[in-house]
What we know:
about 400 residues; alpha/beta; Aspartate Aminotransferase, domain 2; Aspartate Aminotransferase, domain 1; 2 domains; 3-stranded antiparallel sheet; 13 helices; about 10% strand; globular
Amino acid sequence: MAKLAIAGGSPVRTEPWVNWPIWGEEEERRLLEVLHSGAWGKLYGKVTEEFETAFAAYQGCQECVATTNGTSALRVALRAVDVEAGDEVILPPYTFQATATSIMAVGATPVWADVSADTYTLDPDAFEAAITSRTRAVIPVHVAGNPCMMDEITAIAEKAGIAVIEDAAQAHGAVYSGTPVGGIGDVGCFSFQASKNLSGGEGGAVTTNDRLVAEKAWSLHNCGRIRNEGWYEHALLGSNVRMTEFQAAVLLGQLSRAEKQNARRWRNWQILTELLEGVEGVSGVRVPTAECRSAVHLYLFHYEPRTCGISRAKFLEALGAEGIPASPGYSPLYRDAMFVRNNGPSPAERFLGRELDYGKVDCPACERICTEEGFWLYQKHFLGPESDMEQIAEAIRKVLDNRNELR
């Protein structure tokens, strides 16, 4: 008689997972206050400024500029550290497309550097090897909420004289060696899109401890105006990417419970990581040091198909049937259709008006992670009780112990 659910057996889990987003009276109260105030935009109300102050404090930063979304935050940050057309910006290919498209939006060229096979974040050695005379910045991505190896990255960047822009879109509350991310480099960028650990439906933020960078970011997000100067005076080529008072109201409510939720996710991360010890072929991806805390936007797994004896695709299909909905995750971003030549220049080449031969990119760790070694679970799965972690580990062991039913 079959044991695996995919072969006709009973699944490990049938009950639903925690719903996301989580909201309550605080969000409702604040939204209604904004609605009845009639001051719905940042220029007329004070709620967005209140959120900027609160979020800066939460991330241990002196300054925060709230934007419409995480993509606009990246674009503002790039220009705030003087990245211009023709410059090069180094980034890992294991990330969402906005990291790269934001670079192109300011006229710069994305340059790929591989990730570390044991952290899935930017490999400092690969970053250093990618630096040229045209490199203006690097964007280490705290993917899944796991902090990058920031000591090594910032040391290399300082030596080379280039800016560090932290892509912390998935890393609200993450900590690297005792310091919250977003203020370790020159500037940090966050997203508050619907799936994020801190959700406003949409929204973004630029964080920094550099007053000059903050002032430039403020100008860029507010039509090029200079703070406390003329309304129709536009010193920079900015645009309107201001967060609304409604978004800020929701986010203030979300922020009131963020630390408790992050603590729950991190504790469950630790529990699941411990439960997977001794499971051959499946393990959790490590964080750089013992002083780091992941925000657990995703729980990253490392999968060894040769050890497990079945492909990742078959394993994930069987795991899903057991009630554990895991995803294979990203593809190498340089293989995205926008970068691929098809009987002529790629869409990215046509946009920038310059050659980008990404067919020769060599990022073997990222390739293995994307095609056969990596998969993930979402943050909402880590907001439940410890017994949820036991079920995840049980389902993984069950699939591996009965892999013969999948052949």
